[in-house]
Sequence to fold (656 residues):
Amino acid sequence: MKDQYYFLDENSIHELNNLKRPLFYKNYHDNLLNLLNKIYLIAIDARTQGIDVSEKIESRIVYDLADRVAKMHDINITNRLRNLLSETTKEKAALKISEEIAQGKYSNDDLTTRLDNAVRVSLAIVTEGVTVAPLQGISDVQIKNNSDGSKYLSISFAGPIRSAGGTEAAFTMLIADHVRKSVGLSKFQANSFDDETGRFVEELRIYEREVGSFQFKILDEDVIKCISNLPVELDGVDTDPVEIVGHRAMKRIKTDRVRGGALRVMNDGLIGRSRKLLKIIDNLGLDGWDWLKELKGAIQKEGSSEDDTVHHRMSEVITGRPVLSMSNKIGGFRLRYGRCYNTGFSTIGIHPTVPILLNYAIVVGTQIKIDIPGKAATIALVDSIEPPLVKLDDGTVTYVTTIEHAHQIQNRINTILYLGDILVSYGDFLENNAKLFPASYVEEIWGLELQMKIEQISSNNSYSTDEKYVNEILEYINKQRLFELANNPIEKIPTLKEAFLISKILSIPLHPKYSFYWESITVDEIILLRNEFLKKISPLEINRKLGSIIIQLPPSYTINEYNRLEEFLVALRNRSDLKNHDNIALEFRHNSWNTEGVLELLHHFSIASVLTDSPAQENLGFLSNENNLASNKLAVVRLHGRNTTRDHYWYDYLYS
Fold:
C-alpha cells in the first residue's frame, strides 16, 4: 500500500483503509488516488533531472486537516490532533494542542520556538490550513520585558493575516494568552515606556486616510481600552510606505510606518467582532477577557451618526456592484427568522421572483454583503416567504408571487415598493453573537398564537374572552379547520371572514396577510390620503348631499390618548379642505372615554359624539346615553339593534 500511494504516510494509509464507505465511493476514491499517485511519480522523475531549482516537490499531499496542519509546521501531532478533532470542536482542539506544544510535549525546542509553533498551529487549525495566514500572516513571536522586568509574550502580525478573517485573527490572541499562562509568562503592560495606545489611535486613522478602510468603523475609546487591556502585545511589521507623524521612535515599536496586519487584527477582529469573541471565550472557558464587554464594537446606528455609518458602508462598495437596500429603509428586505431546507449557516433566503425583478443582478449562489448578523451571506431561493410588492405602469399595486407572474409583468413595473422577506436563521445570530432584532409578525407566529388559544379551548382553561365567544367561533369555524390553520400557517391561509372572526373573538392579532404596512406611511402621506378622500367627496358637499363623516376609534384607543386626540382635532380643523366642520362625528369604543372633559372637547370643535342603539350592557351604556350629544347641529345614531341572541358576528359588541 505504501508503494501504491507514494505521497501518503503510513498513518494516513491506515486511516484510509479503515474508512467505512459504500463500495462505489471506495472505487471512486481509489481511482482518484491512483491517478494522483501516477502524476506524483511523474513529478518526482521530472525533478530528478536537475533542471529545476529544487529536486523536492513543494506541494504536500495530505489526508485530512490533522495531517495538513502537521505537515505545514513539521510537527508530529497528526494522531493527537486527529483524535482531538474527532472528540471536540476546532477551537477547543486548537486550545489543547497549543498548550501541549508550548509545554514541550512534541519537541525539545526553546520556549520562544515552542510558543511560536503553538500560535501558528492553532491558527492553522481554525483556518483549516487553507490560508497563508499561519505561515506568512504571523511575522514573529517573541518574549519581551515590561518596564518592571517581567516577561511577556509578543505577537507580530504581517499583511497576509487578512486571509485568516477577523474572528480567526483575533482568536490567535486568545490562544497566545492561553499558552502564555500555561508557561508562566506575565501580562503585557501597555504604555510601560511610551504612549502605545496613542500610537494605535494615530496609526489607525492615518491608515484609514492614506491607505484604505477596514471592514468596520471603530471608536478611539475602544482602541485605547483594547490596547490597554491586552494580556499579549499586539505588534506588527510595516506594510505600507506611510509614516506616523506624532508617535515615532518608540522603544517597543520598531517601525515608524503603519502596521496594517496589527491594525487589522485589532480593528476587524478584537474590536469589530468583540461580541462573537465573547461567545468563543465563554465556550472555551477562558478568563481575563471580560473587558471586551465594555467595547462599543463596530459602529452601528446606536451611539453614532447614521449618516456616518451609511457613508462608511457605501465607501466600500465597488463601482458597478448593485446596492439592494439600506438599513432600516422602507422598501428593502424585511428580516424574517427561520430556515428552509436549502438555507443555513451564512446562507439566506429570498423570494424566487426577486432575481427576475432585479434583472438577475443576483441569482442563486450570489454572495452578498449584509449588516447583520455577519458580514456576508450566500443567496438561496425560498418561495414560502413574503414576495416582493410592485407598482405597475397603470398604477396597480400587486404582490409578485410566482416566477410566471414576474415574467409577465417584468416590463410593466414602475416601482419596486418592497423586496419581500430575507430569511435568516437564528443560528447565524448565535454564531456571530449578534443582537436579535424584533421579529416580523409572520404567519408562523400567528399560527403559534392560534395554537395557544386552541389549547385553552381544548383544556377548558380560562379564556381571554368570555366562554360564549369561544363557543361562538366554533359555530363558524370548526375545530378541524382551526387546527389546520394553526398547524400549517404557511400553506393554509384563512379567508378574510375567518381572519376577522379569529382575531375578534379569540383576541389575537389579525392574520399577516390582511395586516398592511400602515407604519410605513409618513404623516405627509396620511395627509395626502385624507385630502384625496375629501376631494372625492367634495361634490357631495357642494351639492349639499353630504351627510356625516364618522371617525371610529378602535377599542384599544383609551383615554390615555386624550392629548393625541386633541392634536388630531386641531389638525383636522386647521388643515381640512372641508368648508363645513359640523358634519363630523366621532365614535368611542372604550368606556374610559366616559369621563369628564371628553364631551367638552368635542363640543369645542363642533364634533358630534356617535350614539348606538345597543343592548343594555354595562360596558355599552356610555354609547347609548342620549345626554352625550356634543354638537348642537348634528346627531349620529348607529342602529345596531338590541338583540342579545346574535346570529351574525358583526353584532358581537366587542367594546372594551
In short: The two ends are 84 Å apart (CA to CA). The first strand starts at residue 138 and ends at 145.
